Fold each of these.
Amino acid sequence: MSNRLKVAPNDLSAFWMPFTANRQFKKAPRMMVAAKDMHYTASDGRKVLDGTAGLWCVNAGHCRPLITEAIQSQAGEMDYAPAFQMGHPLVFEFANRLIDIAPKGLEHVMFTNSGSEGVETALKTALAYHRAKGNGSRFRLIGRERGYHGVNFGGISVGGIVPNRKMFGTLLTGVDHMPHTHNLAKNAFTKGEPEHGAELADELERIVTLHDASTIAAVIVEPVAGSTGVLIPPKGYLKRLREICTKHGILLIFDEVITGFGRLGTPFAADYFDVQPDIMVTAKGITNGVIPMGGVFVTKEIHDTFMTGPEHLIEFFHGYTYSGNPIGCAAGLGTLDTYRDEGLLTRGAELASYWEEALHSLKGEPHVIDIRNIGLIGAIELQPLAGEPTKRAFSAFVKAFERGALIRTTGDIIALSPPLIITKGQINELIDHVREVLRMVD
Ligand code: PXG
């Protein structure tokens, strides 16, 4: 470790960091060098409580033995096997284990290497499905304002985060967006699902009327929007979206990249809201964030639609060199074993009310204009500094890190999503860190 602790700032120029203020970071780097369970170790030796499960992915906590051992042993046994026209046992075992816990109706899974690739896979599957059914006129894809579906062209096209889109030309054509559901005037400080806003699902009817259902392939939403600052669906909203999609023959895609694998206290958000999507995108928690991987789940109806024609022909011209690679599958199986042995896919339900009370105890602290929560997700929205949006929350993030807690900010919203192994004592500790930094920042 001693070597790793001595990273000098003038060594930092080669790496162009993702979604980072590079110049600011490189002047005052924040480095992690080790991790175990609920904590990181920073490069100055301090322990940092992980309030964000890395980036919403380390659901079982860090460096868990079953996952580490599975990767180590697979790396020595078989490192890679070709993914096209060849197989290896682990990928089939992993797929079966995933389908065992998947929401009802989702019976097949394709593998990717990230959430962004999962989104592209889902959108392409939707288009190809309709075409295979003889409905090639269904080419439109509908997303939502403030949606985040990764950073590839399909994902940013259906996504609704302006800085992620505006630099990149015309994007996909034939895309439309529903309005987001965030409404502070009506729903501020709601615990759990907000009362107001289910009627916003009817905006999909308006879009259908505008374009005609016969042109629309799919609607994609995050059941709970994460990256944009934790937007929790109003009561009844997702069920209404499902009804409208079904009525018009439109596929409903749930992007469960952050909600999948126990984040809401159920295995998936589809279970929590009792709404069945046609396609479900997952990543992050699928391997506890340890090996890059994603899984795209589809119904039997979608899968079987492709399984026609001569058997020697490839049914779907899509896939990646590393789809279901052995070490990723080993990590995934170790992850599922850990979730199962420790009951982590439902542990959030036991902690949710404690988490909710702890979070909402921040009401009345400086700058706080909203607090929202669901499962083991929390958000604290701050009044932006006049003329300097994002600065206040970012300064809270830096101060929290210095004090020993990792939080995440987006805009002027603090988002919290700890590993599902967090204890009540650690919830108190995390919230106390946030309380202290709110009292410290300008
Ligand atoms: N869909 C959703 C809903 C996501 O949250 C992606 C797709 C893309 O996944 P990949 O694996 O390609 O990054 C995501 C990713 C944050 C944060 O702090 C969220 C994500 C990534 C990084 C940071 O909110 N979500």
Amino acid sequence: MPLDRLAAVAWYRRNRARSRALFDLLDEDTYYSRPIALRHPIVFYEGHLPGFSFNTLIKKGLGRPSIDPRLEALFARGIDPHESTVGADGSSRAGGAGRPDGWPARDEVHAFADEADRQVIDALLKDDVDQAGHPLLDRAEAVFTILEHEAMHQETLLYMWHRLPFAQKRKPAGYQPRVEGAIPGDDWIEIPAGCATLGVARNAHVFGWDNEHPAMSAEVQAFRIARHDVTNARYLEFVEAGGYRDPQWWRPEDWSWVQRDAVAHPLFWEPDGGRWYWRGMFDLVSLPPAWPVYVSQAEAVAYARWRGARLPTEAEFQRAAYGSPGGERTHPWGEAPPDGARGVFDFASWDPEAAGSHPKGASAWGVEDLVGNGWEWTSTPFGPFPGFAAMASYPEYSADFFDGEHVIMKGASMATAKELLRPTFRNWFRVRYPYVYATFRCAT
Ligand code: AVJ
Ligand code: FE
């Protein structure tokens, strides 16, 4: 199927408009600050999005000349320290209005971005960006690479924005976190043994990242999985039982982290006067008991051990989410396209919603919220499927992270674009990375 140019341009423009809207949420004086200490300052991301698109599609794909070699190098992925060196444990540090050495003025970033956008849109409309046999343009790979890359970074932006002081953000009119909802029951579902698809052949879908290929499946033994994500209310039992003070629940490296950084509760929680609050995007709210807890994988593993359970593997997630007695499906709920009734994704909210509030998104087995309302940590280290080949449009995308330090997350959060909701999409972070919108459920 040839590339639908108009659809690609529409998606590119939609991406750019959403990114702009996200930057517009912030006060100007945040521009050179680093909401997460070990990630780049905000200015980087405003240049990185169009810079990556220009570099990938126009320079590498079509072989065209630079706009500004200095800015292209500055905004390239290679110098983003988080990508290879960030630990999970960067303390957050916000504020600081000055312009640090080396970062351009905002006008300069905008002029570069406008020219990059102009050339990308022009190429999407007129150039030969879909060339069979071309290393970067076969099946228009570079086009989808840039479109999905920007969509993914919108989630990066949001979890960075999450850490900024409320006074530096403009809350959209009328927004209130949906804190209501009953705490769901502690329900376990028996998933029968069966085959789960993990990866697909490159040509079996319009686009996938290199780590989704080639075809790969696994035989999964029968197992039990919780119908619902672990909620704040349930996780509070672990905190109150002294879970963060007892090394028996923690892997040795995670216990060192708990001690060194005095970690005593999830990053999204804030204690005050003997009560717990949740740091929302725009408001501090009394800890919503029914929301899925957002934690690092290290904390998820400790909780599961305390409960006498474990995290699901990637293959078990696939089986629970996409399996059915009659074969696998495209989404947990079946073949219907994603919409707001099925789960909390595609920027439907700035914060989570109650676990169990979207039963129309349940899988064939009745497992809820597998896609949306927070990524789901698994116990599976991020690694290549047999026959993996790095993609030409972005060779470092996955391969740099096959280091045994990253684990797979599946599903989606409220800040995951609907275009990324496909069964083989794999996300990954370090086990002690506490910033992402990630929750978990137990399996046995
Ligand atoms: C796939 C979400 C882990 O944010 O580090 C963006 C995506 N890679 N630019 C990340 C990514 C390079 C990546 N994750
Ligand atoms: Fe990037």
